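[job 4417] fold queue: 2 targets
>>> target A
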Amino acid sequence: VRRRGMRSLWAAHYEVLEDGRIDMFIHEQDPWKRIVESILGDIPLLGFFFIYLINPTYLVDMADGTTALKLTKKPSIFERYFVIDKVAELDADDELRALLALIVMVIMEKNRG
């Protein structure tokens, strides 16, 4: 898993590689949530409330453009809960690779802020 392009305030884009070729893409469904979270997240108390309410959603797209999985952050105050929904059927190898890529992406996004 690698970040596509430079670090951006607008949206996160990741590429999942297999044998040096791009196999899947992970991207935010609605980049406006990140903008609102970064602007309002720094305001004391109000920022805490918005971080609880604004929950990003990430999509895993296959190389052919079909959406395979959707990861949604659930509202929580101190922990991070995520739900992964299967949008399209995948073979076992692709599904495992996509799930592992989502775990790595969540860790990278946590470090991103």
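>>> target B
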Amino acid sequence: MTNFAVLFSASGPKTHDSGHAMALSIISYVGCAISLVGLALTLMTYALFRTLRKTNQQPILMSLCVALMLLLIVFIAGAARTENLIGCRIVAVLLHYFALATVMWMGVEGYNMYLSFVKVMATYQSKFMLKASAVAWGVPAIIVIITVSAVTSYYGNEDVCVLHGVPFQAAQFAPILLIILVNFVIFILAIRALGRSGALVSAEKKSTSYHRARTSIAILLLLGLTWVFGALAVSRAQLVFDYLFSIFNSLQGFLIFYFHCIRHQEVRNQWKSLLLGKGLRFRQTETDYRTGYPNRIPGEIIMKLVRRRCRCRWRSNRGN
């Protein structure tokens, strides 16, 4: 058995004493199992209810779930299987790839929020999901291929099947940390944009779309912070942050399920309707059809302006 912290510990994989090693392993495997259930339920929910995936945000979420599920499955199935060197290296390569892909999809979600809340001219980007998929799945593949070609021997050892040494620092730790830092900057800009747009969106603060936007910011900040625990796992503090990283990172799938399903009113309504035999509910929300976040000028405000203009014209015609 091994612990989840080996995927992103700043000082690389480290062997703790037997008591802590066993505790970290149990936490990691139990957390991963819970996460897999949460991710499977999230994917099933958004695959089943078509009305929940009418924008880019939901396919991004589903892709993030797939990447994270594959990371957890490979970790549980093979991270501790060190008896066969070739098999161990294959597992290490897959863990490297899916760890990068998971964080890349977090970056795509951050960019999606940037398009909605920060960019002044939120222009249409054709084939957004195709381009996002090419980047989120393709860039990690390029990094892994280069690393495998250059330093195959650094994949896996007698202790655990992960990338280690200087290649780990350069090809896994550094890219993940960079994406997380960029995401934090984007989240700060998005939150500031939300604050400045308060006057425009006050009529729709309780709408599903705005709840979804806040949920995305909260969950991605939380997921990003869990990876930061790994970056802080150095020197004497490594054991403490290894525990924090193992607990929170192995529970990422459950956190995604909690925020995007359990706390999502529209998801609850869909499941309630289905379980009560009423079929699938279809309801439009006031969101940008590309990003999945609130339009800059909500439809309710636009309708008020239109009605006001019509009344002015009617009074003008009546006076004439």
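[job 4417] complete. Note on B: Residues 202-206, 282-291, 293-302 have pLDDT under 50 and may be disordered.
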